[in-house]
Amino acid sequence: xxxxxxxxxxxxxxxxxxxxxxxxxxxxxxxxxxxxxxxxxxxxxxxxxxxxxxxxxxxxxxxxxxxxxxxxxxxxxxxxxxxxxxxxxxxxxxxxxxxxxxxxxxxxxxxxxxxxxxxxxxxxxxxxxxxxxxxxxxxxxxxxxxxxxxxxxxxxxxxxxxxxxxxxxxxxxxxxxxxxxxxxxxxxxxxxxxxxxxxxxxxxxxxxxxxxxxxxxxxxxxxxxxxxxxxxxxxxxxxxxxxxxxxxxxxxxxxxxxxxxxxxxxxxxxxxxxxxxxxxxxxxxxxxxxxxxxxxxxxxxxxxxxxxxxxxxxxxxxxxxxxxxxxxxxxxxxxxxxxxx
Length: 341
Fold this sequence. Notes:
Blueprint: H1 4-22, H2 29-54, H3 62-80, H4 84-106, H5 112-132, E1 141-142, H6 158-182, H7 184-194, H8 196-201, H9 206-232, E2 235-236, H10 242-257, H11 264-278, H12 285-300, H13 304-322, H14 331-335
Antiparallel strand pairs: 1-2
Helix pairs in contact: 2-6, 2-9, 2-10, 2-11, 3-4, 3-5, 3-9, 3-10, 4-9, 5-10, 6-7, 6-9, 7-9, 10-11, 10-12, 10-13, 11-12
């Protein structure tokens, strides 16, 4: 049985890859845009998961890092004529730099106090944008031209190109996250999360791990913000609560999908976008349903969708292994049988 498990994973992986590569050719542009939104939101949620799930630092300010990436890309494309693909590394680096600046003060606080500090960052970010970014009419809103987000591959339409670019970046960053968690740095992150004092006594530089986790997490959110400009063709700072809302959505995606997991952020982001799109016309229903989904996940799936799957898989494996041949008597039963004539 154990030798068949790797082959099962290979088959499932091949099927998933084939479906993912064929999706954009069998769906309209609007659907491909929704798929792309799921992918860049899952990148942002993965960044938050690295910080909160694996390192134990609670953040409600990742919408600000997302905004840094979005406006970095929008400014470079709209005002300086950059290719949008070239802005993605820059957005990641700037978001990581802001993450370092937030990470140092975070060394002195933890838990609820850290959450409140990062919450203030998300609420403050639109005011900073409004002061320094001036779009048409003085509104802090930048929109690249349609020609600036067109496909660089002639064989692909714009929506297909955006899909594949988001898919490639998402898969690459998820592989990076998995390798980081499996490395010595990842074990240090988990050790700081579980027992900070014990981690310090065995030689782990707790401050360095925390700041590096903030930087890496912010870089993921910055990349997601940059991709959002490619997909949605806008960087908007006019709504004072928009990046606070993004922060809450990232947190919901992590909790529903499963904290401290690799695939959880993607599952959570997919459910998040599905609820948002299903009730797009009603302003009140989508937030209410997201809140209900979060409450339901906390009570019914404390480990998220991934944890729920693992529990069912474990129970199924145990029930299968405990079932022996029903008609075969045990040695004790054979010993108690009467002698036949």
